[in-house]
Amino acid sequence: MAEDSSGPMAGTAHPGHRRYLALVMDVLPGKRSTAKDLGVFNIAGALPFSIAPAIAPAILAAGGGSYGVLYTVAGLCAVIGAAAILPVRRVR
User: Residue 60: which residues within 8 A CB-CB, separation 6 or more?
Assistant: First the structure.
């Protein structure tokens, strides 16, 4: 059964996510490009969920069906992603 978004609890869903988005909106470079910047933010968050299932079979095939290889590649991607934000020193 689908959730009803018009009920008395509709405004209380995911308060942590709302705070997170408020922080994101606070650090965007300019008011004029907010929609574009939020679109890029959305793509950056959703793209890995689209790419990972597409490349996982190739990684499994290359690793002889070993999920250890798959998890190692996923871990390396996480480390590379974390390292990519290290040059960011401050906001604005």
Answer: 66, 67, 69, 70
pLDDT in tens, 40-64: 888 988 999 999 999 999 999 999 9
What is the Cα–Cα distance from 18 to 27, expressed in whole angstroms? 15
Is residue 23 within 8 Å of 91, Cβ to Cβ?
A: no
**What's the rounded Cα separation, in Å, for the pair 73 and 59?**
8
pLDDT band at 22 (very low <50, low <70, confident <90, very high): confident
Nearest of 70, 36, 43, 40 to residue 55 by alpha carbon = 70
- Model confidence at 1, pLDDT cuts 50, 70, 90, reads very low
3-state secondary structure of 60: helix
